[in-house]
Write the structure tokens for this entry.
Amino acid sequence: MKHLLKMSDLSVQDIQEILDLADKLKYEKKHNIPHPILAGKTLGMIFQKSSTRTRVSFETGMYQLGGSALFLSSRDLQIGRGEPVEDTARVLSRYLDGIMIRTFAQKEVEDLAEYGSIPIINGLTDYAHPCQALADFMTMREYKGDLKGLKFAFVGDGNNMANSLIVGAIKLGMKAVIACPEGYEPEVAEWAKANGDFSIVRKVSEATEGADAVYTDVWASMGQEGEAQERMKVFKDYQVNEENMSVANKDAMVMHCLPAHRGEEITAETFEKHANEIFDEAENRLHVQKAIMVKLMA
Ligand code: CP
Ligand code: NVA
């Protein structure tokens, strides 16, 4: 494994190794056992979109591993003024030991990997968010143990989160279902149908029925602000709430990558009932980010 660009590039073994390593690093952190595995290494973090969790977990994670992290806003980089990604990749490869990038087009991340000579980590594109998905599977394993055969339900937009989670769930042997409006299906749907137990439904309760983990995300992602009004109407019935959760399995988890919009994709009541899971999930970004960096950069 040379890069982390999207979930479909990972083997089941890669996923398991990252999750096992993340568990170990989490244990060491909790017991104050230092792990300066990346001493002397530098990660560049390019952001073309906002971030709280991704930025802080990578930056803090890198310090905890003994290395340093540079925050590079695309507004200040020459890439923001049109310097080609091929050149940026070749230059940054001479200074840095790894790059984490959050941007719009998946192609930009794939190009960085193609032209650079250092590991590239996708910190979210319109297509994928593998770092978040890995933290989500880490959290599901903590709560549920072996994930094989469990039912994973995604409620809402077939977006970057849906793509990454559905691919990951199928690879880990889960049953996956998405409840989404027509026209908002995930890009990975055909792959998922061909490779595992995956279905698309239009009614939320059909997805949540018998589910072990129910996941939702915002109705309008970063970059879709102009569609927000329209999406409010299209997605109004695609909400995780107590009624839809009443048909899920007892002890079903509710998950959210955050930021959450209470009253839209999830009610405040359901969010607070599952706050432990949701904030464990946010914490696990740190441990998973560290595992990814160790695997790619050590
Ligand atoms: N979940 C997630 O990626 O959060 P940020 O946008 O705050 O990084
Ligand atoms: N789908 C959301 C995820 C944020 C972490 C977005 O892309 O804005």
In short: DSSP finds twelve helices and nine strands in the chain.
